[in-house]
Structures are given as C-alpha cells and as structure tokens.
Design a protein that fits this description.
- The structure holds two protein chains of two kinds.
- The C terminus of chain A is likely disordered.
- Chain A is mostly helical.
- Chain A has a four-stranded antiparallel sheet, with helices on one face.
- In chain A, about 60% of the residues lie in helices and about 5% in strands.
- The longest helix of chain A is centred in the middle third of the chain and has 31 residues.
- In chain B, strands 1, 2, 3, 4 and 8 form a five-stranded antiparallel sheet that branches. A four-stranded antiparallel sheet of chain B has the order 5-7-6-9, with helices on both faces.
- In chain B, about 45% of the residues lie in helices and about 10% in strands.
- Chain B is of the alpha+beta class.
- The chains are: A mainly alpha, B alpha+beta.
- The interface between A and B is large, with 39 and 43 residues.
- Chain B: This is DNA primase.
- Chain B: It comes from Citrus sinensis.
- Chain A: This is DNA primase large subunit.
- Chain A: It comes from Citrus sinensis (Sweet orange).
C-alpha cells in the first residue's frame, strides 16, 4: 500500500459486483491519499467502537447483527460504490498499524475485528458463505449420508437442546476436529464423537471466525515488529503522528495508574464501602468482614479494585492480614496470602502491575462453590439481588427498573440505575468499570474545595 | 515396646526382624519419606512418562524435552521451590532423594529450560512460555459439601466417596468417546479427591482457550450460595448429558445417594430439594404430603425412596401445564451427582498439579492410580499409607499377587522393592494400563512424523 500525498487516488482492482468479505490477507497494491488514510481509519474505528459499546451492554446476537449492518452502512460507504471494498481493506490495514503496538491494543482490536467479521459473515448470503468457506483453509469435511444416518439421533438431540429446527435429510454437516471450534464445544452446541465435532451449516461461522482470529493475531505480531523496526522511524513526519493520535481516540481509562495513591486509608474503607462501592465490591467486602476469608477469585477482584481506589500496598497488606488472621492466623497469612497481594502490586514474580477488572471481565467470570466474586446482577438469584439492593438503600420503584434490566441481561445498565438511585443523580456515561463507579461516586459525595487564584 | 525390645532396637527402625512386631507408628515424618524416596517411589517410571518417548534412541527424539519440564518441590519447612528442572533420570532421582520434598508438583514443558528463563524476554514475543502440558482435571469432594450430609470439609467416608467414582465414570467416558483421547490416568489425590491426566499428544498441545472450551463442555453446575438453582436445563439435554444421566447418574442417585445421604428424611433436607422446583403449587403440594407423612410409620429406609417417587409423579403429572418443570427431575439429579470440576486447574497450561505416587502429608496416603473401569473398587480408607508400606518392607512379606506361585529365595532378591508391598499392585497397573500403551503410541507418532519429514525433504529435492 503506497501512501501518497494529496493526489487523486487510483485503483487497479477489478470491479467487484459480488460483495464478499475480504480476507485481509495482504496489504492491497493501492495508492491512498493521506487524508483518506486518516478518514477511512476513523470511520472504521467508529464501527469498532460501536461494537465495543454494544458488547459491553450485553446485547444479544440478533441485536448485534442489526447493529453491525447499520453501523457499516452509516460509516463505511464510499461516495463511489465501487470503492467500498477498497475503503474496507484500507481502513483495516491502517488500523492494524494503529493497534499493533501494545498487548492491550492488540487484544481490543482483535476482539472487535473478530466480532465485526462474525456478524458480517452472518449477514451474507448462503452463496457468499459457501464461497468464503472455500477461501479459508479449513480442516473440515462434509459428512457422508451414512455418517449422517448413524449420527442422526444425536444431531437431533443437539438441535432440540437449542430449540433449533431438526436437521433435514439433505442437511449439510461438517466434521471438524473439536479443537477448531472451541466456542461450539464450550456451549455444548455440537455433537462430538471421537474427537470430531459435527458442525451444522449455520454454525460454520464459528469455524470461519476462529480461523480469522488466528490469522489476524499472527499478523498483528508481525505488523508490530515491522512498525518498531522500520515503519515508525521511516514515517516519523507523515504517518506516525497520525497513527499515534488514532489510538488515543478510544480506550477509556483503565485505572491501572491511580494518581491519588494513598488517599484512601484503611479506616475509611467501611464507610466508603457503604457509600461508594458498586454492589459487586460491596458484597465481597461484606463477605470478607463476615467470614474473614475470601477465595482466590474474590481476593483478586476486590484486591485489584482496592488498589485502583488508591489503597497503598502496605495498607492493603495490613487490611487483609487483619481480616484473615481471624480465620487462618497471622503466620499463615504471611506465608500463604501476603505474596499474592504483593504480586498484585507488581512487587513479585514477573512484576506486572495488574489492572483492576472491568465490568466486562467481571460479568464473564464463573464463580463456583464458595465464591463471592462475579457480577451480582448476573450471578445472584433475583431474590438475593433484591435483598442486596435493599441493603444498599435502593427504593422499590428503582428496584423494579433494575430487576427489569437484569431480566433482559443488561447487567451494566442495572448497575448504572443502582448508582443513580443511590446517589440521586444521573450517570449518563453508564458504568463500565467498578473503579469508575467509585470515582464517580466519590466526586459526587466529596465536598469540593475550590481554590480560586 | 517392652524394655527388652527397646534395648535391642536402635534408632534405625529397619533393623527389626520379621518376627517382632513392626514398630512403625502411623503418621508422616521426614524419615519415613526418606525411605520411601529411597526404596519405593518409582523414579524411573515418572521419568519415562515425562519423557514421552524422547529417550534419545530414535533420530526424531528431542533431547531437550525432559529438561524443559517444570517440577516444583514443597520442602518440609513449607519452603516452595518452583521451576526445578532436570536433564536426566538420575538428576531427577538424586534431587528428590536429597531434598525429600513433602510434595512434588508437575508443571508444563516450557519453550526453554526453566532454569534459564530469566535470560528470555517475558513480554512481547513471550519466548519463555509453556508449549506442552497434559490436559488435567481436579475433582475435590469439598466442592460437594452442600449435597453431602455425612461429612464436610476434608473428611471422606464410604457414603460420600461414590460421588467421586461417579465423576470418574462420567468424565472418563466423555474423554474417550467424545474427545477421542486414549491415554488417561486417574489418580487418587491422597485425601479427598481425584486428579485426571490426559496425556495424548493432541491433549498436551491444546491451547488455553481449547482447554477452557473442554472445561466448559463439562460444566453443568453454575453458581454458589447466592443463586438458588445451580443446575438449569432450559431445553432438552445434549447427547453427552443424556448418556451421563441414563448410564450413570440416575441409577446412582435413585439407588445409592438417596438412601446413603437420607436426602428426604428431614424437613431441612427436603426443603433444599423443594427449593430447586420453580413452581409453588408443586412444592406446596409435596410439602403438605410430607409434613403429614411424619405421622405414618414408614421405616427410615423407605422414606427417601418413597418421597422421591412422589416428587417425580407430581412433576410428571403437571407436565403439560408448566414449561419450566419439564426437566426438573434431571436438574435435581444432576445437582446432586454430576461432577464438579475445578475450572481454573484445567484452563491454564501453567497450572501445577501434584505428581502421582506422592504421599499426602496430612493423611500419609499414597496418591495411587485408579482404574476407571474398576473405580468402585477404590476405598479411600484402605489406600496404602506410608507407614504401612514401610512395615511391609520391613517384614519382607511378599504381597505379590502372583497366582499360585511360590517364591524361592533367589528369586526373592531379584524382585523390586515395591513388589514386596501393596504399592506393587499400583505400579504394575500404572505400567501396563497407562505407561506402556502411552510410550508405544509416542514412538509410533514419532516414527510417522519422522517418515513424513523425510518424505518432504525428498519431495522438495526433486525437480
């Protein structure tokens, strides 16, 4: 891809009438205007951001499909229809440059591009799907009639378990090694036998997506190497500033660097828990006070949150020790638990300064027996949730709204409504991170001292 | 010990002759361990296993393979040594004998020798990272505390242990029939659970994501004390769950667990089951029957079975009316009996797991392999303990299960030490059922991979 300053762009790709999804295998041989470089990328970024927000709000697959169609239509159309494909490809490759540079950026880009690809695939025609399947290097074979007859009963059981129509006599199933379709295996959405998963046509998207994700992941690593070794320096005066600016335009604060370290002391914690902790952290905190113990998942979720809130490591050690000593004794605490607290603060092992968990991460966790972490809006029964909200001081009308959101699986919106009810003020941005809940709450409740110069 | 005997014996307990009673008191102490590691622990077998055929005899062998495996030792004073690695069997054996760890854990095979890890970058390209690791599962009976009334915490008895047996059957069948794995080792964890090691090449090369997918495939029980209904089947069951139910779980629940745990015998207990039924009219109907039933003279034995039948009848009669009750019976059975795995253990390749044939420090029992085809036979209360084994060594009794063979003296001395003890049975099983088939398959894989490579180079040379 050649970047050209202020010249009319010319393309030499043939006129594609069939709108197939590109494979993004190679950077296209095109000349691109510098302005388009930035504009295309921003348009695509708007689409990716829209997807990110929707996923965080827990939107269902059907809603996502419509959303992607609308976002794409709104942002990725080119005045010249024949240029649509080029804009698609160019914007993708530009964003690769932008998002290859750190682990976090890569992770985000990978997730969003994969989601985008998935829904665009689903929106395509059967013909388009089949054509794309062939383009990908997939290790799957259509099963024979005999194989189908032998597995028919089991295939029907799987279909029934998801309220899907039963496979007809001419249904096409693909036999694929189970490790190629981890999502389908995890959800028990396929029949598996002797290491092979029997994948239905409508599930084929999972195969495509896994492959896409894997290819893109590898490509990003390579792009990063190239960027660091040659491109960044070469393009110092042209692309590099654009690329660096583009990446700042999204990802919200991750609360890994608290500016106000040490502002929170142990004696404030009980009061802060009551006034400013989101329900997930309040529950963990209360359970810790009650049982003088938390299992690993809870220690991580609460511990990192407290770090993000501004609790210094020394205070954290004292706090956890005071609690755990009641149950396991001070000596055992020092031996078995102190290490991992220090680890969270980046003082042990490979010294990663761990980031407090975002709502998305917490919602997708899997608390088991004896655990208290996770998102109460998702993991609590309605009865327990109502009780917990009552203890937080949420009134009956607000509670009905919250419960309604939960029933529709909008866990973060439920938390936002709780915030609004407890603080009697609105939260337009919506809650995406427990530490955001805390700092927003803190802002409202702390009296501000204005220094007028 | 009489005065006479005490004058006789020195501190070296091994001097006691066969005729005198063995005076090794039960328990666990470092001296016992020293003898165990010196004479009984199967170092060679562990080495062969962990080498997966890379013994240097075949041109395709990777000589660095064993040296890249992480072991970790827990020493007597709770000192924990991670990232131990060894380049040969003798290095492994000598280190174990010298350090006498109270616990040995096995970690993954890394990209480079763990001892050299600091020389490699951590971030970015992640050059020091796990490359192979068995697919492992850890099932602990304390995770079932909310459904067993006979014991709690670390205790285990013959009434609740069958929960582990059932878990083995369900998971083992799925690993073989569904996932196509062959080389599976089940091990008693020494106190209150079982471990599973899946050692096929395909399993060892699985990514974290793929392991997570398998763990999720096995996951049925969701939630904790904060949620009411931990098992929920919104639709008809997946074939795997159907098979588990019809082949193992239903029978176990109805014929064993109902009675051994007295699941319906008190109000507190039957209320727990009623809380799993999301229909007030059904639960109040049953509650009404059971509250008045207390007056009738059913023997203790029958009451659980009787009430379970009543529950099933009531649920099935209302089938047409309420959707959510369709699979309530299955949900209850699964809630009590379906395996509860520790997800985190299986998902991450760098998770360490205790090595088989270790001795559990709290119980003194040896972590022996379990035959999944015969798992009901394992009685956790009679698993050999360290002190028992040492007694057996001392008396020199042969406990070999050699049918109709009488040992002549010369043969006796050629026999391996462990053959003289109850450990012999376990080691023989480990070798014949697991290690030998595994190594055979490793060699075959190596051979065919090698041949393919040769063929490839040949092809590329041709014009």
């Amino acid at each position: 891809m050649e970047i050209v300053r202020s010249q009319r762009s010319r393309t030499n790709t043939p006129n594609d009438s069939v709108s197939t999804l590109p494979l993004y295998r190679y950077a296209p041989q095109l000349e691109v205007r510098l302005e388009d470089f930035e504009v295309f990328a921003m348009d695509r970024l708007r689409v990716l951001k829209g997807i990110s927000d929707a996923l965080a709000r827990g939107k269902r697959p059907e809603e996502m499909e419509n959303l992607v169609r609308d976002l794409w239509k709104a942002n990725m159309r080119h005045p010249e229809a024949s240029e649509d494909v080029n804009k698609d490809i160019i914007s993708h490759f530009v964003l690769r440059l932008v998002y290859c540079r750190t682990e976090d950026l890569r992770k985000w880009f990978l997730s969003m591009e994969t989601a985008l690809y998935r829904y665009r695939f689903l929106l395509g025609s059967s013909e388009a799907k089949r054509a794309l399947m062939e383009e990908f290097d997939l290790p799957c074979k259509a099963i024979s009639r005999t194989e189908f007859e032998n597995a028919k009963e089991k295939l029907e059981q799987v279909a029934r378990s998801f309220d899907q129509p039963l496979p007809t006599a001419d249904a096409i199933f693909y036999k694929v090694p189970f490790e190629e379709v981890p999502e389908l295996v995890a959800g028990r959405r396929v029949y598996i036998h002797k290491g092979h998963a029997y994948v239905a046509m409508h599930q084929v998207v999972s195969l495509v997506v896994t492959q896409f994700r894997s290819n893109l992941s590898k490509a990003l690593i390579l792009t990063n190497r190239k960027w660091t070794s040659t491109i960044r320096e070469q393009e110092k005066d042209r692309l590099t500033p654009i690329v660096e600016a583009l990446s700042m335009s999204y990802l919200g604060p991750d609360y890994s660097q608290t500016k106000e370290f040490g502002e929170i002391s142990i004696k404030d914690l009980d009061q802060l828990a009551r006034s400013s902790f989101p329900l997930c952290m309040r529950h963990l905190f209360d359970k810790l006070r009650e049982d003088h113990h938390l299992k690993h998942g809870g220690r991580m979720q609460l511990g990192l949150f407290l770090k993000g809130v501004g609790l210094r490591m020394e205070d954290a050690l004292a706090f956890w020790k005071a609690e755990f000593s009641h149950k396991v004794g001070a000596e055992r605490f020092d031996k078995e638990y102190a290490y991992s607290i220090r680890h969270n603060y980046g003082k042990e092992g490979k010294r990663t300064d761990y980031t407090p968990y975002s709502c998305q991460k917490i919602i997708s966790s899997t608390p088991g027996v004896g655990d208290h972490h996770g998102c109460p809006y998702r993991h609590f029964s309605e009865e327990n949730l109502r009780a917990a909200l009552g203890r937080m001081g949420v009134g009956s009308r607000a509670m009905e709204d919250v419960v309604d959101k939960v029933r529709n699986r909008h866990y973060q919106l439920a938390c936002t409504l709780t915030f609004e009810a407890v603080h009697s003020s609105s939260c337009d941005a919506g809650i995406n991170h427990p530490n955001q809940y805390f700092s927003d709450s803190h802002k409202i409740l702390q009296p501000k001292v204005e220094i007028v110069i | 010990m009489t005065k006479e005997e005490s004058k006789n014996g020195s501190d070296d307990m091994l001097i006691d002759g066969p005729k005198q009673g063995n005076v090794i008191p039960d328990g666990f102490n470092p001296n016992y361990l020293k003898v165990y590691y010196g004479r009984l622990f199967p170092h060679a077998d562990i080495f062969k296993w962990m080498s997966y055929g890379n013994d240097g005899r075949h041109p395709a062998c990777d000589k660095s393979y064993f040296g890249r495996r992480e072991f970790s030792f827990t020493l007597d004073n709770d000192i924990y040594l991670r990232f131990q690695s060894f380049n040969s069997e003798s290095e492994l054996e000598n280190s174990i004998k010298e350090k006498c760890p109270s616990k040995i854990d096995i970690g993954p095979v890394y990209s480079v020798d763990p001892a050299k890890r600091h020389a490699y970058a951590q971030g970015g390209d992640n050059v020091f990272a796990p490359v192979e690791r068995e697919l492992i599962f850890d099932i602990d009976i304390t995770d079932y505390d909310d459904v067993r009334y006979c014991c709690s915490g670390a205790d285990v008895c013959l009434e609740c242990w069958p929960l582990m047996t059932v878990a083995i059957k369900v998971i083992d069948t799925a690993l073989r029939d569904d996932f196509g794995f062959d080389h599976i080792l089940w091990v008693y964890s020494g106190r209150r659970g079982v471990h599973c090691w899946v050692c096929d090449g395909k399993a060892r090369r699985l990514t974290n994501e793929q392991r997570g997918a398998i763990a999720d495939y096995f996951r049925v029980y969701k939630g904790n004390e904060n949620s009411n209904k931990k098992v929920s089947f919104p639709g008809p069951l997946h074939p795997f769950l159907v098979r588990s139910y019809t082949e193992v779980l239903r029978e176990f629940f109805e014929e064993k667990l109902l009675l051994s745990q007295n699941l319906f015998s008190t109000e507190e207990r039957y209320e727990k089951i009623l809380s799993m039924i999301p229909d007030e009219s059904v639960t109040s109907e049953l509650r009404g029957k059971w509250q008045e039933n207390r007056r009738s003279s059913n023997s203790k034995e029958d009451i659980n079975f009787f009430r379970w039948e009543q529950l099933k009848n009531t649920l099935q009669s209302g089938k047409q009316k309420v959707q959510g009750l369709r699979r309530c019976v299955e949900e209850i059975v699964f809630a009590f009996t379906y395996p509860r795995l520790d997800m985190e253990v299986s998902k991450h390749r760098n998770h360490l797991l205790k090595a088989p044939f270790c001795v559990h420090p709290k119980t003194g029992r040896v972590c022996i392999p379990i035959d999944p085809k015969d798992c009901e036979e394992l009685d956790p209360t009679t698993v050999p303990t360290l002190s028992e084994l040492l007694r057996e060594l001392n008396t020199g009794d042969s406990r070999m299960d050699v049918d109709n063979a009488t040992l002549t003296l010369p043969m006796f001395f050629l026999v391996a030490e462990w053959e003289k003890t109850s450990l012999g049975k376990s080691i023989r099983f480990f070798r014949s059922s697991f290690l030998q088939p595994l190594l055979k398959s490793c060699k075959e894989e190596m051979e065919s991979g090698y041949k393919a490579k040769i063929q490839q180079t040949k092809n590329s040379l041709s014009w």
